[in-house]
Amino acid sequence: MKGPSLMDSLFQRSIDDLIKALRLTPPGTEPAFIAKAIEEIRLEIKSTDPQTKFLALQKLTYLHSLHGHDMSWAAFHSVELSSSASHSHKRTAYLSAALSFNPATTDVILLLTHHLRKDLSSPNAHAVSLALSTLSSICNPDLARDLTPELFTLLSSSKITVRKKAIATVLGVFKQYPDSVRVCFKRVVENLENLDLGILSAVVGLFSELTENEPRSYLPLAPEFYKILVDCKNNWVLIKVLKIFAKLAPLEPRLGKRVVEPICEIMSTMGAKSLVFECVRTILTSMSEHDSAVKLAVGKVREFLLEDDPNLKYLGLQALSIVAQKNISAVVENKDLVVKSLSDSDINIRLEALRLVMCIVSEDNVMEICRILISHSLKSDPEFCNEILGFILLTCGRNYYEVIFYFDWYVLFLGEMARVPHCQKGDEIATQLIDIGMRVKDARSQLVHVTRDLVIDPALLGNPFMHAVLAAAAWVSGEYIMLSRNPFEIMEALLQPRTSLLSPSVRAVYIHSAFKVLMFCMYSYLRLNGDDSSLPSTLIDSELVSDVELDDQNMIVTNGQPLSTSSVIDHLTQESILALVNLAEINLGPLAGSNELEVLERSTNVLGLIKLIKPMLLGSLDNGEGDQAKGELTASETVKMIFDSCSEDLGPVSVNAQERVPIPDGLGLKENLDDLEEICGDVKLPLLTSFSLVRPQYTEASSNADSQGKEESEPSSESTSLLAEHRKRHGLYYLALGNTMATSNDYPPAHDPKDKVADEAEDLVKLTEKSLITGKKPSQSKPRPVVVKFDDGEVTNVTTDRTGIKADLISGAVNKVLLGDEATTSSSSRRKPPKSRRVTDESSAGIAKIDQSEHSKAGSKHHGHGKERRHQSSAKDKDHDHKDKQKSDSTAHGKHRSRHRADKALEAQAPVIPDFLL
Amino acid sequence: MIRGVIIMNDQGKPRLIKFYEFQPPEKQQELVRSIYRVLCSRAENVSNFVKVDSLFGPDVRLVYKTFATLYFVFIFDKSENELAMIDLMQVFVETLNKCFREVCELDIVFNFYKVHTILDEIILGGQVLETSSEEVASAVDAISRSLPLPLSLCAYVCALVSSCEWVLRCNRHILVQLSLRVGKEWQFHDSIYSWLAEMIATELW
């Protein structure tokens, strides 16, 4: 008596037992329990008894699917069990395959081919369905290739369920093995005329997937789809047909004209919301030039927005955002509902409404909209609040603040946003604060005012989300300190004790800003009290305001606040400046021992400066002369030099700035590079992102170029091209070629615009010294403050949309099947359906024949490669008559080259494929 | 096409996971967890759509619906209609209801394979096959009729037979008749046959 096998099958845990036990395991011990169960399964699954194996596989599949346990090791057992005669065994085996096989890596899939083929041609409909659903789950190129003939047969199966499933499976097969299109496509098309709704729905669904990638190939089928659109009353089918027309209509304007009417009719007569929504979407995306239809659709959208169902509201808003791209007035019409949706309880709806509101932002309404939004953000939860702030920042900053007219308002608004309690958009706000400071001169005084308020407020220092904003504010305060009303209070703010709450990097910015403020005060003081001996005479002026205004260091004082600097002068006494210096010394003294490098360094700088100027100040206090005079002179000169260097106007830097720097004389670029190569050897130098694509070839290419460099005397075309390539790759080591920049001898400022004409300042704004010296106020002559920007380089590259190669292959094959080789595509939308006389009544022998006859075509087209592979591997095919055909085929292929011409000639003579479309 | 169907309970325990493009098991669990995190934070009476760009890439949408203790989740791309997906979910639930008679979570827990069978009749390879719950239910019925007894019952008969061994020892005819009848009616599985054959061959007889 064979005990163990019997006992195994008697006392083996079934899947129900496993589930029950799993449910009873105390929380936390589940992994251990599963591990134990897996151990059991590992033993059981090796059993020779199919029943035991079946139960084990059943449990394993369950654990795999719902508990994420890996079962790739059991792949072979699935294959083994799938050959079982029992349908339930087969079902489990196929399901486990469908759930666990990775089409790309599971190699035992190949072993499944035979079983699948057997089941696909089985008379039992259940077995066929099972095999089809498995095939669609695990389809890979090999399976698709090998099972295409069976699938082809099933496409005209008399059992509706089987045919339906076969049609659905075809999609995966087409994707994996585009050559199968040639075989199956005609039969698929035939099914478009089927009266059964299930089949129609499946085939229309298939086409809606196919048109997703390359719709043009399916234009010839438009009449069939049109017929379905008009005749069919089934919502599912109609939705899919609408999807197809949404893809086809943009390609053929006449088609749009033709279908827009039935679509409108469906939209106004049918009740199903899904269908109505699909009509709306189709019209809005693909038929936006038909005004009356769009109007009708927008009306429907409004109905959706008025519904109570949040889903309809959400979809209505989405539909509006489709219109918004082309026709903003439709959104404006529904503005009331959109704004109302901003306070909906559903975050989806709110976000969608927010997006729409941002779409209608323009120069005229930006202030109003931002006002509404910020009040919303104060009322809403933190998450949505930050969404709002993010959207505002994004929209206002778009395309160099193109919607912003009043920068003074916007700068104030930025400050307000930073103070919103839940604000976490500090980084973005900080970026814009600095960016506006650099780009928009006219906004600077207001900016300084706003940042002063931020820096001074001690409450803000405690909020870590504010630190980025504070860093920006501190930087702005330091950089544009000459516009400040009261540098002393800024200095105090920058040095306040609570700055210890800041992160070191922010703190370093604070200290450096303090340094700038100190410099400015010192300079102003020296200017005020200076005599001819201490300062160069050209710079001395009785009135500091005008001096600053006309300073050659590009400082500006805006018209709005003529008194801003003069108020500073009143306070500039020796005592006050000494107090300032002392304040800095006291606060920064301890930081000279800081552990943070940046903080340490910045504070040491300031302290060094103080050391330098303090004796001078004290000296002038003591009225001492003689010995001190010399020190004072040097100190004041130093102050002047530092101040000069600090007060140079910083501008935004073009990405292409580097290219415009001419090569200085006597710079031996090549020698240095050679040295670099020797020294660094194989060290991979960090490359700019734009070069990162070529990284793998780095060493090879550079060694090539090096050798070229050594034998540089012979400028062969190859070497120059290599050199050029090298130059392209290592562009960062090369300055621009000398001759291109021959016109300018000097280093141009990095932000120097190319265009010198100030009036054409649409893209580039001129910042020449001239315009500043003559005191032109751009704000008066121009309607809007100028924003410095570059027309080159700063635009982000739009990634090109690439359609998949596979999709191309499919559409190529479809084109060939639908149009033949001669048929023209133009205006083919009026043609009749394929009648496929050739394929319908022939079985597998027929397929092989098609293969053969189409082989000649394939040879000359890009499918040649795939074809070849097919013949090679299918030579192993066990199917006998099939094999014979393939063999003759592959021998033919062997002589392919020699026969190529003959093939072409043959093709010309051979009965031309009947034009299916006529 | 439909990218995936998930059923999970309100604790985040998955009850059915089916992706129509291969996903490794760890990834599946991770996705279920992230989806659950989103779903459980959503209030009632809000829209059924969730943005899942971060999980599945652009143009992929997710629609969910709560039925008693279960979340039903459909993940699909732009070639499906959002509202139609909600309808399809309704079809799925109705079918479950028909197949299990007042479906509850436990039915789905203990009928892993049957739920997959039902789903396969509705969706194949990400394509919608059938949208009528009656059709699906009858198709599933036909499949389960073609299958042998539920296995637990089979094992039960097995155990019964073996425990009655001594009785049967007395009356061989009854045993043979019983086994033949059981085998015929329930398409009884092979191991019982082989066992009987063994018994016939050995000392029992």
Automatic annotation (TrEMBL), chain A:
A Pfam cross-reference name: Adaptin_N
Quaternary data: Adaptor protein complex 3 (AP-3) is a heterotetramer.
Function text: Part of the AP-3 complex, an adaptor-related complex which seems to be clathrin-associated. The complex is associated with the Golgi region as well as more peripheral structures. It facilitates the budding of vesicles from the Golgi membrane and may be directly involved in trafficking to the vacuole. It also function in maintaining the identity of lytic vacuoles and in regulating the transition between storage and lytic vacuoles.
Entry's family note: Belongs to the adaptor complexes large subunit family.
Protein location: Endomembrane system; Golgi apparatus
Signal peptide: none
Biased composition (Basic residues): 858-873, 893-902
Protein's name in the database: AP-3 complex subunit delta
GO biological process, one term: protein targeting to vacuole
CC terms in the record's Gene Ontology section: AP-3 adaptor complex; endosome membrane; Golgi apparatus
Species of provenance: Salvia splendens (Scarlet sage)
Keywords: Golgi apparatus, Membrane, Protein transport, Repeat, Transport
TrEMBL record, chain B:
BP-aspect Gene Ontology terms: intracellular protein transport; vesicle-mediated transport
InterPro entries to which the protein is assigned, alphabetical: AP_complex_ssu, AP_mu_sigma_su, Clathrin_sm-chain_CS, Longin-like_dom_sf
Intracellular or extracellular location(s): Endomembrane system
Gene3D superfamilies (UniProt xref): 3.30.450.60
Entry's Gene Ontology cellular component terms: endomembrane system; membrane coat
Keywords: Membrane, Protein transport, Transport
Domain of life, per lineage: Eukaryota
Entry annotated with the keyword Membrane: yes
AP complex mu/sigma subunit domain mapped to chain residues: 1-143
Record has Protein transport as a keyword: yes
Assigned protein family: Belongs to the adaptor complexes small subunit family.
Protein's name according to its UniProt entry: AP complex mu/sigma subunit domain-containing protein
Organism of derivation: Salvia splendens (Scarlet sage)
